[in-house]
Amino acid sequence: METKETLRAPESQKAHVVERPTDLNTIGGTISIEINDKKVSIPLGTTILDACKQNGIHIPTLCHHDDLCIAGVCRICVVEVEGMRTLQASCAFPITAPIKIKTSSTLVRKARRHIIDLMLSEHHGECYSCVKNNNCELQSLAKEYGVDSYTFGHIKESRYEIDKSSYSVIRDMDKCILCKRCVRTCIDLQEVGVLEAVNRGDKTTISTFMDKPLADVICINCGQCINRCPTGALHANDPSDDIWNAIDDPTKHVVIQTAPSPRAAIGEEFGLEAGHSMTYQLNTALRRIGFNAVFDTNFTADLTIMEEGTELLLRLYKALVQKDENVALPQFTSCSPGWVKYLEHFYPEYVDNLSSAKSPQQMFGALLKTYYAEKQGIDPKDIVSVAVMPCSAKKFECNRPEMQDSGYQDVDFGLTTRELAKMIKEAGIHLPEVEKSHFDSPFGDASGAGLIFGATGGVMEAAIRTVVELVLGIKVEDLFNNMNVMPVRGFEGIKYAELPLGDKVGEVPAILKSLVPNWDWLKGATLKVAVVHGTANAKKVMDDIKAGGKFSQCHFIEFMACPGGCLGGGGQPIPTNLEIRQKRAQAIYAEDSELELRKSHENEHVLKLYEEFIPEGPCSHKSHKLLHTHYTKRGKYIA
Amino acid sequence: MEMIEKTRKGPVIFSDYTQGESVKKLLAVSREDILFELRESKLKGRGGAGFPTATKWMLTAAAKSDKKYVICNADEGEPGTFKDRVLLQEYPELVFEGMVIGGYVVGADEGIVYLRGEYEYMYKNLLNYLDKMRSQNLLGKNILGKEGFNFDISIKLGAGAYVCGEETALIESLEGHRGEARNRPPFPVNTGFLGKPTTVNNVETLASIPHITVKGGEWFRQFGTDKSSGSKLLSISGDCNKPGVYELPFGIKITELLELVEAKDTKAVQIGGASGVCVPKAQFNRNISYEDVATGGSIMIFNETRSMIKVLKNFMEFFVEESCGQCTPCRIGNVKLLEGVEMIEQNNYTFSYINKLKELGKTMQVASKCGLGQSSPNSFISILDNFKDEIFNNSNGGNNGN
Fold first, then answer.
1. Which H or E run contains A416?
2. Cβ pair B279, B301 in contact under 8 A
3. Considering only alpha carbons, which residue of chain B is nearest residue A111?
4. B339 contacts in chain A (CB < 8 Å)
């Protein structure tokens, strides 16, 4: 379970929090209350909001979000509690006495309508030109309460300049209603702390350090704030116009790679319940839109496992056999660009611990404008490379100056799930009704190991499936039932697992022969790994490593910036909550279990790529040139 | 240190008192004894809200914790209030000893004075005074030789936000956060400063306590009315000959007050500061008490020459600026009320819209998160109601009410 505890605030912020019981049954005792004259029994300590929800009574909310601590600031959820002079915010009121509640008295309805009217009076912008049109909580509320005119006027002029500085996140404060969900996301959920309220009274606004543009502060581009913004005040930097232009340009060869998480979630944009995978329908839709070729990012996820797994074994070899004291261990994964930037800002002294292997997106980018271009006889300058990602940070990643190893910008555009859904709708396609089709060659379909990258623990599981087989020479299913590495699955914030390797090791496979002579040095060793998602949890683990604690003894740690991993990324459909994220994870794991190919090192296309293009194998000179990268010690004082 | 000479006389707070007297008394009595006297005294919070002090201390005393705090709310920011300044400058022994007694009763060993930023000039003097108390062992470890009776006081300066006078915003500010009110429940008596049980008391409340400790609850209760025992320090300003700080028993009529301070041609009295109510001439026989017109101490007198719409505008401008900005009704509501005042001023309004704003004011009173937004519409509503002849006839040529 991704409990509240694992997503909890730093001590300094807890003051804001009314502790919600994480497990209502453990509080003990129930209490009898009256809601709208109806007697109901609820667990002691339940908030009025939850009590009403449990009894089928709808109370509107805005500042409340299931993933976040309580604010009680929008006041839209106020209800009448008998005997109290003022109305009470139901989200912030834990019930500890047998109270009587009225949820829609005249006073309550009038107050709510007033609050909506006040918000609308300062909400600048038109619905039809807004990215959140039809998915805006303020718009829905206005409809729910029958707003047909602006009682207290409507602001005519813009007050704030739109901050478009970031490759990832755009801030349009004219649309902000100051619910502070973004602030709580940034400070409390992610512990990054880029956004905070500044000024007072009617001049209150959400801003950054010294009101600097988002590109110049320590924003990690995770986009979690976007996912929780009730209005269009925060949205991703949308490249779809440029992509349409490229598609319309006959001289351009436009290719697209799709990551597993968008495929598991994009159905939600078309009215499906969370948890329906659209992988193969999407291939057809993308071709219909006009993409020249559709590839599976899982292919390079498999490649990442080969490179990153080899890198890990090499680091261990250097540290254990060659006694090289400069080897940075534990090795950290580097496929989450939000996490990478977080580390560069907050723990720059640890950049050497990051795997130098590029993320799957960037490996694909480098290959498309080299290997693929060569194979297809296309001039790489004419290739436009698009990546569909669940992620807003991927937009930043593809613009990193070091990501040009093909001689061009390796990936031209990072496109979020939401933006792709918009393009598909624009093309008049209803995704769920589209027939299925496969990915294009020469990369073809990929393994389930690459697929599960989308969920927290997935990279670790994929790595274990491969490393165990390469080193021990046994089948991973002999160790883990049905290949499912359960110890690294699940939504716990921080997972730790030990894997004793035993006394028997296998032969070194041909592809690694040039790097290590044998595995004898791993006999009797225990592989220690950890899986971490959400940067608040990453902070805990990094602080532990700094202090020389348990996690400093790990060999390999998977870090994902977003809660739930990529499937909870900042580019995914809105809304998000634990239940939705769990359903997306189920979809991903179910798809994996149905595949025949579920191990990266068994992916024939990957092996063929090595044979044809990087014959020296993983972590060789050429692989380093194309498939590896380096990082920047940013610290907190530079942009 | 230099102290201002005590020349004031009054029934309770300004009555005779010897420094250290109340703390000495503590050596012989239990916390229950003090709580008993406090309950007998019926002392209510002097900041304006009027919460029974004995109850607050009892709840804090009952809360289980390894650490508790006594906080003195010296963020005197209500427009027209300046009585805490007098207490801190002239009678610091009352305030600080009140905190020591509080520590003894609730089981806290740490007291913090949250001093209004604008009172920085008295900061040094107060620190010196605390040093003096330490040298007398009225503060520190084993106070006056009583084993395990430890209490010390520190002073923190505010940064000038009005909202930080609200106790939970004050605590937020003390913790180094934005001064914004918290959700209640939980209340500070259980979850206060740094999450520990905390009692937050006004300067004047604390200053009453040494007297009650020494002279008893019954003595205190003989002053004032049944529901408002004791006396009140009133900061009187505006159109009168003798403005200043007065100690008067609760229950005093507004007319008596005006006579005392030699106010002439009084049109209105704003009682309770910007967040209080504006009392018109016709109601001058009302009295100052929790049950009639309550006040944290601010009394502003306006004579016939004053324009009430300008008075109101001043108040609303104050609230627009001083709202902390976190909750919708207060942040935007005050802006709308101010806009309404400006419309009236410019004679560009409709009665139906002004009535809508009054309705909005009523929503703000019940739906705002803290006392600031809940009380900011008070003057809007009371001034427009009580002075409609002046305001609407003056501005729209006599077409009043149609």
1. strand A413-416
2. no
3. B363
4. 153
